């Protein structure tokens, strides 16, 4: 995904969101990749949808997270019966 000013490219690498600066003058070049500090929150694209975006001013990233799960949802329970 491109930054609003078109000078930075953001992409998902595993569970990390990474950015590179792009220049086209005097020739095409790009910076070293920089991982943004939101590791673990970026989810793989599900049918083309992504759970992250960059604000219009290009200064912040936004991540949509799932609602909190209840305690029982997180840990589940198992019952073992011995006969």
What's the overall geometry? elongated
Rg from Cα? 19 Å
Q: Mind summarizing the main beta sheet?
A: 4 strands, antiparallel
Helix content: under 10%
Q: Give the CA-CA distance, first to last residue.
A: 58 Å
The secondary-structure class comes to mainly beta
Uncertain runs are none
Q: Could you state the oligomeric state of the chains shown? A: single chain
Strand segment count: 6
Average pLDDT works out at: 75
SSE arrangement, N to C: EEEEEEH
Q: Beta fraction of the residues? A: 25-35%
How would you describe the overall organization of this protein?
- The chain has a domain of 56 residues.
- It is built from one helix and six strands.
- Strand 5 and strand 6 form a beta hairpin.
- The protein is elongated.
- It is mainly beta and 83 residues long.
- The strands form two sheets. Strands 1, 2, 3 and 4 form a four-stranded antiparallel beta sheet that branches.
Summarize the SSE layout with pairings.
Elements: E1 8-13, E2 16-23, E3 29-30, E4 34-35, E5 52-54, E6 61-63, H1 71-75
Antiparallel strand pairs: 1-2, 2-3, 2-4, 5-6
Quick recap:
The protein has a domain at 8-63.
Relevant terms:
83 residues; mainly beta; 4-stranded antiparallel β-sheet; two-stranded antiparallel sheet; elongated
């Amino acid at each position: 995904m491109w930054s609003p000013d078109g000078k930075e490219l953001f992409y998902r690498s595993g569970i990390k969101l990474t950015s590179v600066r792009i220049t086209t003058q005097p020739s095409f070049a790009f910076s070293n990749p920089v991982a943004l500090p939101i590791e673990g929150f970026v989810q793989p694209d599900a049918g083309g949808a992504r759970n992250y975006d960059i604000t219009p001013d290009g200064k912040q990233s936004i991540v949509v997270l799932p609602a909190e799960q209840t305690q029982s949802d997180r840990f589940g329970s198992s019952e073992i019966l011995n006969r």
